[in-house]
Amino acid sequence: MRPIFVAVAAFLSVAACTSPPAVVDPVETRTSITFSQLLEKPKATGDHRIAYGADPFQFSELRLPRGQGRHPVIVLIHDGCWRADLPGTELMDYMAADLRDRGYAVWNLEYRRIVHPGGAYPDTFRDIAAGLDQLRTLAPQHGLDLRRVVVCGHFAGGHLALWAAARDRLQMSSPLRVANPLPVRGIVSLAGIADLAAYRATGPDACGGPSTIDGLVSVQGTGGRDVFADTSPPALVPLGDRQIIVSGALDPIVPPRFGQAYASAAATAGDAATSVVLAGTGHFELMVQPRPSGHGSLRPMWGCCVR
């Protein structure tokens, strides 16, 4: 079995700089792991914990690579069903450390979630926006290259990563709209819930069923508002950015059909969007970035997007 990093890096080193197809053949990788096994893996916190707002959950952890110069940036957004009762940034610590060692600055973003005071619509989305835009303040001091920013998220974070890249597509009437959002070069969505409406209608109940998505988008008191118009990426395509939608063929939580359908719709709308299905892999190991020996010449997962 090939490690996930090698499989996806090999694909992106060729495809992300060209005009890839909407769907590619499955790539063989490792067997799936459980949520408990993921949490048991050794991990370390970031170099700097930096607040982007006054709330205790409005912070991010910054990891900086060795060396001088301006560093390309990868923004990580964790999963957890957008819910406050599940772990946060620690879920992305494994990936963050690996990417930092490969020469990227990594901004591992926390945000208010469902049940947190101020969580759900609109503030969960506003937190993602504010955390991303905070990079403008940090760039001079930490040598960040804001011309090369890629956003990656897993599961709920995969949804928020796609949404973050779509902010310039929001209508002026949306309370989520901000002036001059930080542009990004690409998005990598790992088992992301790209289409909120489709997942609510036919997705598994792993996140708590439709009520969780209803809580995220604040169905109550909408006054007839289309709750997905400014929250679900398919309503905002084309995003105008490169998008890699990664799914595990054995994923019971976000089956590949969701990522494949979104990538196809985004490509039809004119986006450079590609679905990658990793055969023999499930849901949680997509957050683990092993460092395989003998593959030092392979480009990192987001190398092409940030060039």
Q: What portion of the residues fall into strands of 2 or more residues? A: 15-25%
Report the mean per-residue pLDDT as an integer.
83
Low-confidence stretches: 1-21, 23-29, 289-306
CATH superfamily: Alpha/Beta hydrolase fold, catalytic domain
Helix content: 25-40%
Give the second-level CATH assignment, the architecture.
3-Layer(aba) Sandwich
Name the shape in a single word. Answer: globular
What is the rounded distance between the termini?
A: 29 Å
> What's the total number of strands?
9
Count of discrete domains = 1
CATH topology: Rossmann fold
Write a structural description.
The chain is of the alpha/beta class and 307 residues long. It has one domain: 3-Layer(aba) Sandwich (Rossmann fold), CATH 3.40.50.1820. Helix content is 27%, strand content 17%. The protein has helices at residues 4-15, 35-40, 93-101, 123-133, 135-142, 156-165, 196-202, 210-217, 256-268, and strands spanning 27-28, 48-51, 59-63, 71-77, 105-109, 144-154, 186-190, 242-248, 273-279. Strand 8, helix 9 and strand 9 (273-279) form a beta-alpha-beta unit. The chain is globular. Mean pLDDT is 83; it is low at 1-21, 23-29 and 289-306.
